[in-house]
Design brief:
Shape of chain A: globular
Largest sheet of chain A: 2 strands, antiparallel
Radius of gyration of chain A: 20 Å
Number of helices of chain C: 9
Order of helices and strands of chain C: EEEHEEHEHHHEHEHEEHH
Helix content of chain C: 25-40%
Strand content of chain C: 25-35%
Number of strands of chain C: 10
CATH class of chain A: Mainly Alpha
Oligomer: heterotrimer
Largest interface: A-B, 45 and 42 residues
CATH topology of chain A: ABC transporter involved in vitamin B12 uptake, BtuC
Structural class of chain C: alpha/beta
Strand content of chain A: under 5%
Radius of gyration of chain C: 18 Å
Helix content of chain A: over 70%
Distance between the termini of chain C: 51 Å
Largest sheet of chain C: 6 strands, mixed
Chains: A mainly alpha (328), B mainly alpha (312), C alpha/beta (245)
CATH architecture of chain A: Orthogonal Bundle
Structural class of chain A: mainly alpha
Order of helices and strands of chain A: HHHHHEEHHHHHHH
CATH class of the domain at 1-85 and 197-238 in chain C: Alpha Beta
Distance between the termini of chain A: 14 Å
Strand order of the largest sheet of chain A: 1-2
Chain lengths: 328, 312, 245
Amino acid sequence: MERSDVRSLYLLGAFLVCAYALPFVIGLGAGTVRGDAAWLSYLATVVVGGLMQGGVYAMFAVGLTMIFGVMRIINAAHGEMVMMGAYFTWVAFFYLGVDPLLALVFTLPLAFLFGMAVQKVLLNAAVGQPELTALLITFGLGLVMIYTAELIFTTDFRTIPYAPGTVQITSTIAVGQNRVISFAMAVVITTTVFLFLKFSRLGKAVRATALNAEVAMVCGIDVRRIYLVTTGLAAALAVAGGALVSIQFGFNPETGVLYTLQAFAIVVLGGRGHYVGALIGGLMLAVLENLVSLMVPNGTAMVELAAYGLMIFVLLIRPGGLMGVKEG
Amino acid sequence: MARREHTRNLVLLVVVALALALVPHGVSIYVRSFLLFTMMYVVLALSWNIISGFTGYTSFGHVAFYGVGAYACAILVADYQWHWLASLGAGAVVAAVMAVAIGYPVLRLKGPYFAIAMLGAAEGTRVIATVWDSLTHGGLGISLPSADTSMPAHYAMLALMLATIVVAYTVGHSRFGIRLNAIREDEGAAEALGIDATRYKLAAFTLSAIFPAVAGGIQAYKVLYIDPPSVFFVQITIAMALMSMLGGKGTVVGPIAGAVLLYTAQELTWVNFPTAHLIAYGLFIIIVARFMPRGLVGFAVDRGWIRKGMVH
Amino acid sequence: MGESPDDIALDVRDLRKAFGGVRAVDGCSFAVPRGKISGLIGPNGSGKTTTFNLLTGVAQADAGRVLYRGEDIAGLKPFQVFHRGITRTFQITRVFREMTVFENMLSVTGLNVPDHAARARAEELLDLVNLTRLRGEYGGRLSYGQQKLLEFARALMTDPDLILLDEPAAGVNRTLLQHLLDHIHRLQEQGKTVLIVEHDMNVIMNHCERIFVMDYGVKIAEGPPAEIQRDERVIEAYFGRRRQS
């Protein structure tokens, strides 16, 4: 790596350390931080819970980074696909009586087809165009999805009561059962996708296209087909994310908006097109959010600010993120 | 362009200005409000076009300046008893400072990264407005004292629109505008021709921030109540972008036409299809972005109805 | 700050640039004579492109100096290099595609003249390269050869004293190449200095008065074409060492 490249990486690392220290500092000042063992084990619980939440974030961020990496376009409707996943699961649970995890068996293929359709009809025309085209198209798609959901389900918040118990991880740390299950599922799904990308022919073709689409074409890869697979996969991951999120938190048609921004922040932090980066980014963002929520007064509003702040500072220090080259 | 054409355009502008100045006296409040919003969107679309159309840096967070202007007016008028016109000036100054502060680091980013960074900046500004409640009253919003009629706001917006049109027109037909276009087309080649891209971008960005801020201030004065979600509404940025794209990005007529057409269409759809109109709007965005990225002006140029280029 | 003799236009001293571990330019020095056409050649990987980028400000040197009119321009950005009176063209044309030919010409800065004078100059240059009838067409719609001519004319708007041409012969047919070379000679007759980076040996040998040869990031030879053609080191750089049988 060039000198300035290494320098920006160190700078980013220093910034991240400060970012994590900041909630503690603010909390010390605001009195929300205590040094006793009970609080510390509570802190540990929050961190562990954050890591698990991050696993789910990472999973749908991988989809976004895939689209961005392979096609260089931004999917502003990604959060809406997550939201769609949550509603699919809800419908399966309340109308068909299907277990949310089991529902994945048919919601994932459905999502894959949806992604392919979106790519074919809408996004193929946006590849290679200036970024505004894809941004507007996907934003329009997101709007259509939000308001269709509103028409069908109203703006009421929905929840799925599932696995209400807690799991004792250690003697002092207990995490909600639904969160553990989500995390486990996210690990399974993400690992499958990683293995697919690394070892299968199609997966390698996806990675090749991300590196250089022209060369991939010359090597005989049907780039258009790769695009379809990419968006299909990304949609499936997003929907899976929605399903796993739906058993932990309440949702309504507009919750997707925040997920989109969080996914952007994760992709920026991890590096465009870098899958392991998305994983790390997801974990880091979730933990940071949970720390902020715990220690900073007005924490719930500040959680959003944590995501935006993280994203902007990473863009300013090292747009390529942790795993990318300096310029992205 | 020949002097003749400039004169013709000026005459056209004066005629439109006179019409817009006189019309409101004889129409209903609803029509007056419609005109105000249309003029506002012309201002917003033209401003957005300066940084995103001419210079090619797609700002997906321009609503931040609009919101800041709205808050400047609201805070100064409601809490500090300033005259609202003075608060508009203050809003413009704040927006300009903010543009330089944000622009200097963020304009170094390329294409999609710049867009996302601006989106983050706008959303971040919204959250700051929500939590900094000692200044902004947070989520409660700010109420302004009402005015006797809506005419002052109308004239202020008309004046703003005329100013924006004149500035956009001057930029678009000057060598400054050509250089902005050059930066958009190929920043490296532009630098090789002596263009200090950093300075030009920053100038364009700051210029594009001032007018939305004043527009925001006028809106606050008219609407009498603002809060963070209404004023930092991401769909306002989308509207700016869509209007410019619909009319023709990178031109002067384009954003004006796009703003008038889109806003009128929106109003008609909303009135007639209250629930489905947002879905229709989303579909409309998709269709325009997918099939008409060069907009109406681009379409006309391709057909040979309008000459290519801005400077002849 | 050293002084260069008056007959030197560009004095390159011990230029160095490394990318990671690769030393692309490793102590390169040469002096471009004023008022003449010079050539910079070298096999692939010799560092001549990097050197060119260092001269034009596209890349920042790690060490070394580039003296122009008594000033070290080595650390300057491209637009600053331009304002010192040095212009350049690109190997693969970079005309502004969605702007008209005329607008391309007017995009140039540094002309502190009123509008009408700038336009007059643009018209004059377009006439010189025979592109006047295309002045209202988008740059992107021009043929490759026409784009080359446009870029060349564009680079002459400010009447620069030093013109750096990046592979002017690349992708160009014989007729057009002859036109370009005629223009280049005309520039030299006007007292300007031209430095050409090229692969096309015919162009270099037949049109340059002085040639600098690079390999492995340094200058390995310099001189008039006749000498360079016979120089053992140059032959070795391009063709490899002659095997002793």
